[in-house]
Specification:
Length: about 240
């Protein structure tokens, strides 16, 4: 079943709804937020030559029958491969906040006859996922684009099934240069009650892969403290193919 929430005449643009972090009750991120520059990080052919998706799915423990969310799905590089991996008894929900991306991905899902994949239009601070549903949530080359990370991660937590994990793939560079320093990523997740399960280099996916689980009670928004990013240090030079998601 395709959830074509993007095809309702909503405005087209990089953010489908304005969000004011100052009035949300959550702390603002102490770091720049990268702009959405493209629906892709690199070409699918190049990524497959590096066996990127298969390596990430293997290390994330994604198996047939699982329910998986692809956050910031873009053109659907991971969505399509996740749908094939989880099989007919599994389910994939592809989420993005750009209506055009969701509309195009929905067309692709229908064309490739992936009946176990649905698409969903999210909000900048809320992925709008069903509760107690997901064995894995993937966030690949997009975490640095989340303008309200503490609210986003807080609203994401209820969507995890027991034992569910959040898998982040990103580059080790400043957020304004389309990456997230690993220490900052760990701090922001910890502030919302996630524990880091693993962190490993992943050159084939452009940087590193980190895995988190929700632990303990979800903190009240006013109890969350923003991490100090140090993002105003010297910026890292971005290679041409690293500027695109």
């Amino acid at each position: 079943m395709l959830l074509l929430a993007a095809c309702d005449g909503s405005p087209r643009g990089p953010r489908n709804e304005r969000h004011d972090p100052a009035n949300s009750g959550f702390p603002a991120a102490d770091r720049p937020v990268a702009t959405i520059v493209s629906s892709r990080w690199s070409s699918e052919e190049e990524r497959d030559r590096l066996n990127e998706a298969a390596k990430v799915m293997d290390l994330a423990g994604i198996k047939p029958g699982m329910t998986v969310a692809d956050i910031g799905a873009g053109e659907g590089y991971y969505t399509i491969r996740l749908g094939q991996r989880v099989g007919a008894k599994g389910r994939v929900v592809a989420e993005d906040i750009v209506p055009d991306y969701i509309s195009q991905l929905a067309t692709r899902v229908v064309r490739e006859k992936l009946d176990n994949v649905s698409v969903r239009l999210g909000l900048p601070a809320d992925p709008r996922l069903p509760e107690n549903s997901f064995d894995r949530v993937l966030m690949v080359h997009m975490y640095h684009e989340i303008e309200s990370p503490y609210e986003f991660l807080w609203r994401l937590r209820p969507s995890l099934a027991p034992g569910g994990q959040v898998v982040v793939v990103d580059a080790d560079r400043a957020t304004e240069n389309h990456g997230t320093p690993p220490a900052l990523l760990q701090c922001e997740f910890a502030a919302v009650g996630y524990a880091q399960v693993s962190m490993r280099p992943m050159a084939s996916a452009g940087g590193y892969m980190a895995v988190f689980e929700a632990r303990g009670a979800r903190p009240e928004p006013e109890a969350i403290r923003a991490c100090k990013s140090g993002a105003r240090a010297k910026a890292v030079t971005v290679q041409p193919n690293g500027a695109h998601e």
